[in-house]
From TrEMBL:
Naturally occurring in which organism (per UniProt): Brassica oleracea var. oleracea
Source domain of life: Eukaryota
Source organism phylogeny: Eukaryota, Viridiplantae, Streptophyta, Embryophyta, Tracheophyta
Subcellular location: Cytoplasm, Cytoskeleton
UniProt record, GO biological process: microtubule-based process
Name of the protein this chain belongs to: Dynein light chain
The keyword Lipoprotein appears for this protein: no
Length: 94
């Protein structure tokens, strides 16, 4: 429904993964109410864990702040309609 209206604000993911992230976000918005950010994020995280291995994190909302360390090539931050989406795979620091 909302595909093609996403705007990537920052990313270091491969384009194929970026497209997958935005497609999953659109799919989640078709399944869940737009105010149910927790379920939307859970859906996207579950799909990324299944497709790309465990350890993915997803934050969805219209107003949030964060500070994190991510594995190289696993970060995307984009907007779709009124929501912002942050998806990344966590990294440990020595």
């Amino acid at each position: 429904m909302l595909e093609g209206k996403a705007m990537v604000e920052d990313s270091d993911m491969l384009v194929k993964m970026q497209v997958q992230a935005m497609s999953l976000a659109s799919q989640a918005l078709d399944i869940f109410d737009v105010v149910d950010c927790k379920s939307i994020a859970g859906h996207i995280k579950k799909e990324f864990d299944e497709r790309y291995g465990s350890g993915w994190q997803c934050v969805v909302g219209s107003n949030f702040g964060c500070f994190f360390t991510h594995s190289k090539g696993t970060f995307i931050y984009f907007q779709l309609e009124t929501l912002k989406f942050l998806i990344f795979k966590g990294a440990s620091t020595p």
